[in-house]
Design a protein that fits this description.
The protein is mainly alpha-helical. It has helices at residues 18-51, 56-81, 97-109, 120-123, 127-133, 145-153, 156-175, 180-196, 210-227, 236-244, 267-291, 314-323, 338-357, 390-393, 395-402, 411-419, 430-433, 459-469, 472-475; strands spanning 249-254, 295-301, 360-362, 406-410, 443-446, 488-490. The protein has a six-stranded mixed sheet with strand order 3-2-1-4-5-6.
């Protein structure tokens, strides 16, 4: 595959690149976390055996199977840190093992099949999932689910952001009129929220009134200008012009993998970010269908297997609404704000109604089990291929997106797959980096810089940043006390 690419793919042979950091530190840390989670699961099973709630023979088998999985993960971690060759995926009857193994064979023939030589986009392969698939009692186990819930539950920051956004949506329902001037102001705030992944950019809309929105038409432009130096590829104008041309359209959200997007090296923050990202995606979708005449349905695209840390699976989406209730969170985080929780309750009930009515829907049934063959509807998202191969390798998915009025790709992994995670010069036009996908359907990519690949940046700016900061502006804004982002749109 690499020989057919216009540029070489990113891989860990470059010790200054983000893929090297990932293989050296991030993936081993994630694998250690999975082993810890399995140990906790085994402890819980042992207690249930003692209590008599689980038959001893059943519990013992499950613990023995978990021990086998942990041994495999430990060996994987050992092989990873010592640059051993990647192993073929067993023919376990699940997603795309033959595709991964064929690609691995080609990499082996070119001497690029070890952990520190394989292309990063390929090396995020599904071998971890294969360990669980081998055992029936663990086949539907998401090793990250418990930690995702736990960190969200105990995060006061999460609660504050959630209540703030619920209050904003409540006030918009009172004040917002279907006027393009007002809608544009809020749309730009929403897109900023979705881009940066938190509620900060909607803070000025709390307790909003018509006069507040009018004020933001001036203040918002100033705030946008202040952030302009950080937004290196800014297509918000094109995004708004495209949205307002739609009437009762359909928007598709390709949900984020925030596991490797977060620049903070703490897994707990990554997992909190996952839940907040899904929440902000739902808020954005709610705004589009509730307050604009331009959108009447939104399709959310999950992944069918837990892709390392924090991907949204069908089960995640199905359970998420039930998590947005006061009783889920620590009492100290909600007892003093009855109004905030009432506004959140109203909003969540609206979302649940939208799901029942088909206004909000998943691209696959929400009861779909992990690893289910979706006949091309969702399997492609966790294949080793860049998205420009979609038409040939996932025709049903390609045709579905062809009928969409706007497809929003969230996060860094989606951006890497859109651009193939190859060494494009940063000034390469976004549409060019999409290769065969360009012009297939309207694409909006929302991504803050967390990995090496960057396109669409003015050459002079890219060269100036390289001279001043080296690689840091591409991969980790916190280290230079700045964030950089590249929200990009292709309407070709």
């Amino acid at each position: 595959m690499a020989s057919q690419l216009p540029y070489a793919p990113y891989d860990p042979t470059d010790k200054k690149g983000f893929s090297y950091e990932t293989v050296l530190r991030r993936w081993p840390t994630i694998l250690t976390g999975v082993i810890d989670e399995l140990n906790q699961q085994c402890h819980g099973i042992s207690l249930m055996i003692k209590e008599g709630s689980v038959p001893k023979e059943v519990g013992d088998v499950k613990i023995e199977e978990a021990s086998s999985i942990m041994n495999k993960i430990s060996m994987l971690k050992y092989e990873m840190t010592r640059d051993k060759p990647l192993n073929p995926i067993p023919n376990d009857g699940e997603l795309l093992s033959d595709i991964y193994n064929a690609e691995l064979k080609a990499l082996s023939e070119n001497g690029k099949d070890t952990w520190f030589t394989a292309p990063w986009l390929y090396a995020e392969y599904r071998v971890l999932r294969s360990y669980f698939v081998a055992f029936q009692q663990w086949r539907q186990f998401d090793p990250f689910l418990s930690q995702k819930d736990k960190t969200f539950k105990h995060s006061r920051t999460s609660v504050l952001h959630i209540k703030e956004l619920a209050g904003t949506m409540h006030e918009l329902g009172i004040a917002l009129k279907p006027d393009d001037g007002q809608l544009e102001v809020v749309f730009r705030q929403m897109i900023q929220m979705s881009l940066w992944g938190n509620a900060t950019d909607l803070s000025l809309l709390t307790h909003v009134s018509i006069s507040d929105i009018q004020r933001l038409q001036a203040v918002g432009k100033e705030a946008q200008a202040a952030k302009h130096e950080f937004i290196l590829k800014d297509d918000q104008d094109a995004a708004w012009n495209h949205l307002k041309s739609m009437v009762n359209g359909r928007v598709d959200f390709i949900l984020d993998n925030s596991g490797f997007e977060a620049s903070i090296p703490l897994l707990i923050v990554v997992l909190i970010s996952h839940r907040l990202q899904l929440f902000t995606d739902l808020v954005f979708a709610d705004f589009l269908v509730t307050y604009t005449p331009h959108v009447n349905s939104v399709v959310f695209h999950p992944k069918m297997i837990p892709w390392f840390v924090s991907d949204v699976t069908p089960l995640d989406f199905k359970r998420f609404f039930s998590l947005l209730k006061p009783e889920f969170f620590e009492k100290a985080n909600f007892e003093d704000d009855a109004d905030g929780w009432e506004q959140l309750s109203v909003m969540v009930k609206r979302w649940e109604a939208y799901v029942e009515q088909g206004v909000f829907k998943l691209s696959v049934p929400d009861e779909s089990p992990l690893g289910e063959n979706t006949q091309g509807k969702a399997d492609f998202w966790t294949s080793p291929y860049p998205y420009w191969d979609m038409k040939n390798l996932a025709p049903p998915l390609y045709e579905h997106l062809r009928s969409s009025d706007l497809v929003i790709f969230k996060g860094d992994l989606n951006y890497r797959k859109l651009t193939g995670d190859i060494k494009w010069p940063p000034w390469t036009p976004f549409a060019e980096s999409l290769r065969a996908l360009a012009g297939s359907f309207p694409i909006l990519s929302l991504r803050t810089n967390k990995a090496d690949v960057v396109v669409g940046v003015d050459r002079a700016i890219a060269e100036e940043l390289d001279a001043k900061m080296g690689n840091k502006w591409r991969v980790d804004g916190r280290q230079v006390e700045k964030f950089f982002s590249c929200p990009a749109m292709s309407l070709i």
